Amino acid sequence: MKWAKPITEKLLELSIGAGRHTDVLPITTLLQDDVVGLYVREPKGEGWIHVPPVKGALVINIGDVLQIMSNDRYKRVEHHVIESASRNRVSAPIFVNLAPDAVFGPLKQVLENGEKPWHKQVVYSDYFNCFFSKGHEGKQTMEFSKL
Ligand SMILES: O=C(O)CCC(=O)C(=O)O
Ligand SMILES: [Fe+2]
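Above: the input record for the complex with fe (ii) ion. Below: its predicted structure, written as tokens.
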């Protein structure tokens, strides 16, 4: 099957779907139809893993905010979508967002055993503006909150 092949960075550059990115907010819940196209970054490496649509199943994506709140316990995942040349693909993401003036950082419950915080407390709208000012630059956006 065409989309089962590993994709190359060149194909990724040429694709029309969603470019490589992480989701800024804590969690995205995503319903895919039966058209393939979603890929996530390999946890340790430069490759991409295909996320096949599973009937009745939801994809749960961890975003930047949850990684920061968990003090890097939960890792956000870079992902992208390649459109099918022959079929329209419909996906329904539900974004769980924060209020623009919400201040967030590693949760105190996560740090209560003396763990070192890896991020500072930041205002969500400041983080959001930084995130979207950088386009799809993958991992660099998290520098904004890094201590
Ligand atoms: O359409 C998809 O499967 C993913 C969409 C997505 O990554 C997003 O909306 O942030
Ligand atoms: Fe996304």
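Notes for the reader.
The pocket of fe (ii) ion (ligand 2) is lined by residues 21, 23, 28, 79 (CB under 6 Å).
The domain at 9-142 is CATH 2.60.120.330 (Jelly Rolls).
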